[in-house]
Automatic annotation (TrEMBL):
<protein>
    <recommendedName>
        <fullName>Cytochrome c1</fullName>
    </recommendedName>
</protein>
<keyword id="KW-0812">Transmembrane</keyword>
<dbReference type="InterPro" id="IPR036909">
    <property type="entry name" value="Cyt_c-like_dom_sf"/>
</dbReference>
<dbReference type="InterPro" id="IPR009056">
    <property type="entry name" value="Cyt_c-like_dom"/>
</dbReference>
<feature type="transmembrane region" description="Helical">
    <location>
        <begin position="259"/>
        <end position="277"/>
    </location>
</feature>
<feature type="domain" description="Cytochrome c">
    <location>
        <begin position="62"/>
        <end position="248"/>
    </location>
</feature>
<keyword id="KW-0408">Iron</keyword>
<feature type="binding site" description="covalent">
    <location>
        <position position="212"/>
    </location>
    <ligand>
        <name>heme c</name>
    </ligand>
</feature>
<feature type="binding site" description="covalent">
    <location>
        <position position="75"/>
    </location>
    <ligand>
        <name>heme c</name>
    </ligand>
</feature>
<dbReference type="GO" id="GO:0016020">
    <property type="term" value="C:membrane"/>
</dbReference>
<dbReference type="InterPro" id="IPR002326">
    <property type="entry name" value="Cyt_c1"/>
</dbReference>
<keyword id="KW-0472">Membrane</keyword>
<feature type="binding site" description="covalent">
    <location>
        <position position="79"/>
    </location>
    <ligand>
        <name>heme c</name>
    </ligand>
</feature>
<feature type="binding site" description="covalent">
    <location>
        <position position="78"/>
    </location>
    <ligand>
        <name>heme c</name>
    </ligand>
</feature>
<dbReference type="GO" id="GO:0046872">
    <property type="term" value="F:metal ion binding"/>
</dbReference>
<dbReference type="GO" id="GO:0009055">
    <property type="term" value="F:electron transfer activity"/>
</dbReference>
<dbReference type="Pfam" id="PF02167">
    <property type="entry name" value="Cytochrom_C1"/>
</dbReference>
Amino acid sequence: MVRFLGGLVGLFFAGMLLLSFIWGAVSFVSAPPAPTAEGEFHKHPREIAWSFNGPLGKYDKQQLQRGFQVYTEVCSACHSLKQVAFRDLEALGYSPAEIKAIAKARQVPDVDPKTGEMSTRPGIPADHFPLVYPNDVAARAANNNAIPPDLSLVAKSRHGGADYIHSLLTGFTSQQGYKNEDGKELLKEFPDAKTPEGLHFNPYFANLNLAMAPPLTAEGQVSYGEGQPKPTVDQMAQDVSAFLTWAAEPKMEARKSTGIAVVFFLLIATVLAWMSYQNIWSTKEH
């Protein structure tokens, strides 16, 4: 009798535990998370018809050179490019003499062979682009406690790649009166979502506010050479986005060429295998 009652008590508690679990699961499914300003107003990157899109896409070397110019004259004041060597610029169409001049114009860290102390020297083609700031402490001190990211791999580390970079650079706008695609106004829906002082509103950034001020602000901020497109803000943003895509994937064209050759080889191998099957096994019972 005692065992029977003990079994009933055990079943009772097991049933209560099961009911609690089911109730929690139903509550979790039926109660969606509360909407957030980021979830409601964050925008996906605008798609651009880049020359390097698709399996046959290739980089536009003139655009890459313009993008490098935008990086040099605008972005390099805060953002490093430490994974890229000066000699890699040969892929953009620069001559060895031009690459030597580009490298020589920059000071790279070195060690004095006599004293062992740190020093600097003019760069050579084998050097990588030097860091803008020696460490994170210096970067934070110069940028209101924010660390500008290195741009070497930014096109691969951000969802959307070149589209994201272009949208971010051209997406700075006023928060006042800003509405999403559904017509909802940000500050009416989320009064506490006002951009903090020192930050800048950009709906293409994950949390809507970032420390970087708009880097491209006016047409002609960078002067392109004769015969080049008009340096509008949108054009400069496209050019530097293409350049940063190349910096992250300098072997893209070679990889695509290899892929096409492999696909062609596999197609031929498939046809030969099918013909062999027809010639050898089609009359055999199996």
